[in-house]
Design a protein that fits this description.
The protein is α/β, with parallel strands linked by helices. It folds into 2 domains: 2-132 and 256-311, Quinone Oxidoreductase, Chain A, domain 1 (Alpha-Beta Complex); 144-251, Rossmann fold. It has helices spanning 37-42, 78-81, 130-142, 158-167, 181-189, 209-218, 239-244, 263-273, 275-281, 291-299; strands at residues 2-7, 10-15, 25-34, 55-60, 65-68, 107-111, 115-117, 150-154, 173-177, 193-194, 199-204, 219-227, 248-251, 257-258, 261-262, 282-287, 307-311. The strands form 4 sheets. Strands 3, 4, 5, 6, 7, 16 and 17 form a 7-stranded mixed β-sheet that branches. Strand 16, helix 10 (291-299) and strand 17 (307-311) form a beta-alpha-beta unit. The longest helix is centred in the middle third of the chain and has 13 residues, at 130-142. Bound molecules: zinc ion (ZN) (2 copies). One zinc ion is lined by residues 73-74, 77, 79-80, 88-90.
């Protein structure tokens, strides 16, 4: 079968052995897999010994339409036993598409407990967004909202726009600080206004020191800055402003389970209820044989791309 890998020559579509079933797993025929900023970051490490793709959806041999939780928690550490498997102490090198074979392939073997059934009206070709939008639905839980807050979002790549989509039903107003015009327009389609004034919660979605500075400025005294970005490098804290306002800083990492379900199920429902989210976020689609071009478009800031989807 075909699989997307990163070799010394760059992104390649290679032939690998078919995914093998076992008792705990299901073979998924992949229908959509989207490219994430962290995929682009991974490429800097050169040739990778596994298939890329942690945002994907497909169909089981019995015809179930599913999205996939790419995390593979150990199930036995204190965090896993404490219902915080996203904080598993050993899982990061097992995440599908990050440390183990991922979903940019014709098919993949996935443990049964990682399958998320899709609401009937959510299209498989859009369901790769369940994972990245799940990052945002988890972020809303981490923000411990009481309802009706003014929520600011700094950064309008796919995570920032996912944050807008997840915040919109919960906030009295969502204000977006975007760097590019097409991103601001996308945010407005999802219900955000241009950021103006103070916000109770500001979600930092760019992962840069200037974004953190902006988030700190936008936050009201006593408010919360929530980090949804991936900070690959250390960033300086605008300490004086944060201190004088007694701001809270909190992090959010992937997604997990809660009293009434899971962040990924919430994400699937949000996508199903609001088709404009997928229509706005997915700007480009490519067949798997065009994976190299798909990655080029995703990494080209001038392409106007938000989410680039590969369809095996
Ligand atoms: Zn991702
Ligand atoms: Zn664990």
């Amino acid at each position: 079968m075909r699989a997307v890998r990163h070799s010394a020559e760059g992104i390649e579509v290679v032939q690998v052995p078919d995914a093998a079933p076992n008792l705990e797993s299901e073979i998924i025929s992949v229908r959509s897999a989207s490219i994430c900023g962290s995929d682009l970051h991974l490429l800097q490490f050169g040739a990778l010994p596994f298939t890329l793709g942690h945002e994907f959806a497909g169909i089981t041999s019995t015809g179930r339409a599913v999205a996939i939780d790419p995390n593979v928690p150990c199930g036995t550490c204190d965090q896993c036993r404490g219902s915080a498997s996203n904080r598993c102490r050993t899982a990061t090198n097992r995440i599908l598409g990050i440390g183990a074979d991922g979903g940019m392939a014709d098919s993949i073997s996935v443990r049964k407990s990682a399958l998320i059934d899709l609401p009937a009206s959510l299209r498989l070709e859009d369901a790769c967004l369940v994972e990245p939008l799940g990052v945002a639905t988890h972020g809303m839980r981490q923000a411990q909202l009481v309802g009706g807050e003014r929520i600011g979002v700094v950064g309008a790549g796919s995570i920032g726009l996912a944050a807008v989509a997840a915040a919109r039903p919960l906030a009295s107003e969502v204000g977006l600080a975007a760097r590019h015009e097409h991103q601001q327009a996308a945010g407005e389609r999802l219900g955000a206004k241009v950021a103006q004034g103070e916000y109770d919660v500001v979600i930092e979605c760019a992962g840069t020191s200037s974004a953190l500075e902006r988030a700190t400025e936008m936050c009201r005294p006593g408010g919360l800055v929530l980090f949804l970005s991936t900070l690959w490098d250390s960033v300086p804290i605008p300490g004086f402003t944060a201190m004088a306002k007694e701001l809270g800083f909190r992090w959010s990492f992937t997604y997990g389970e809660h009293e009434h379900g899971t962040d990924l199920k919430d994400s699937a429902q949000l996508l199903s209820d609001n088709p404009e989210i997928a229509e706005t976020l997915i700007t480009h689609r490519f067949g798997i044989d065009e994976a190299r071009e798909a990655f080029r478009v995703a990494s080209d800031r001038k392409s106007g791309s938000i989410k680039v989807v590969i369809e095996p």
